[in-house]
Write a structure and sequence with these properties.
- The complex is a heterodimer of chains A (107) and B (122).
- By secondary structure, chain A is an all-beta fold.
- Chain A is built from no helices and nine strands.
- In chain A, the strands form two sheets. In chain A, strands 1, 3, 4, 7, 8 and 9 form a six-stranded mixed sheet that branches.
- In chain A, a hairpin with a 5-residue loop joins strand 7 and strand 8.
- The mean pLDDT of chain A is 97.
- Chain B has 122 residues and is mainly β.
- Chain B contains no helices and ten strands.
- Chain B is globular.
- Chain B starts with a strand and ends with a strand.
- The chains are: A mainly beta (107), B mainly beta (122).
- Chains A and B meet through strand 7 and strand 8 of A and strand 5 of B.
């Protein structure tokens, strides 16, 4: 089955840029979705189809996807962005696959 | 705006059946563009998709292979909701269970239900 690899944690100072990666075999050929999950809450979609933002998601959130790595970029990080972030794709057997998640800490 | 509201017991005994329901508002369960999914989350397994039901002139189900022999997902059009049944549960099925709206294959999951922590007691 398809495997997505995320770093367990990323730390960033307020106002700086956070980059969270999601690695997978030829992931650039797939559509990548990103979810934000705060403690005790359900995941919330923040980026879909590599770089589209649902309404209500700040423009500070963006995504890219090429080769073997997809990246979620959060600019001008705020304390409220502290959360777990998950990438997700659909594999060749048409099953959804999630990455292991990255905990974003705002210093 | 679609909203999903989950209900069901938070404690199930081993070998018994886990049953959860997800009530939909803002869209009909028989929508021709939506799929209705169950996803669970545990520290050991992370986020794990379990399966989905959807209507495309008739009802279809897709299940994740590891639970395929134990899972049933059904839609109830009279109540505009869908349900999850997972049979013969073990403590390894302890997790937070979420319902979520999807589209076709390739689509994201949005929105999600609030989640239900289900503990399987031995």
């Amino acid at each position: 089955s398809y495997v997505l690899a995320q770093p367990p944690s990323v730390s960033v100072a307020p106002g700086k840029t956070a980059r969270i990666t999601c690695g997978g075999n030829n992931i650039g050929s797939k559509n990548v979705h990103w979810y934000q999950q705060k403690p005790g809450q359900a995941p919330v979609l923040v980026i879909y189809y590599d770089n589209d933002r649902p309404s209500g998601v700040p423009e500070r959130f963006s995504g890219s996807n090429s080769g073997i790595t997809a990246t979620l970029t959060i600019s001008r990080v705020e304390a409220g962005d502290e959360a777990d972030y998950y990438c997700q794709v659909w594999d060749s057997s048409s099953d959804p696959v999630f990455g292991g998640g990255t905990k974003l800490t705002v210093l | 705006q679609v909203q999903l509201q989950q209900s069901g017991p938070g404690l199930v005994k081993a070998s018994q059946t886990l049953s959860l329901t997800c009530a939909i508002s803002g869209e009909t369960v028989s929508s021709n563009s939506a799929t209705w999914n169950w996803v669970r989350q545990s520290p050991s397994r992370g986020l794990e998709w379990l399966g989905r039901t959807y209507y495309r002139s008739k009802w279809y189900n897709d299940y994740e292979v590891s639970v395929k022999s134990r899972i049933t997902i059904n839609a109830d059009t009279s109540k505009n909701q869908f349900s999850l049944q997972l049979n013969s549960v073990t403590p390894e099925d302890t997790a937070v269970y979420y319902c979520a709206r999807g589209g076709g294959s390739g689509w994201p999951f949005d929105p999600w239900g609030q989640g239900t922590l289900v503990t399987v007691s031995s």
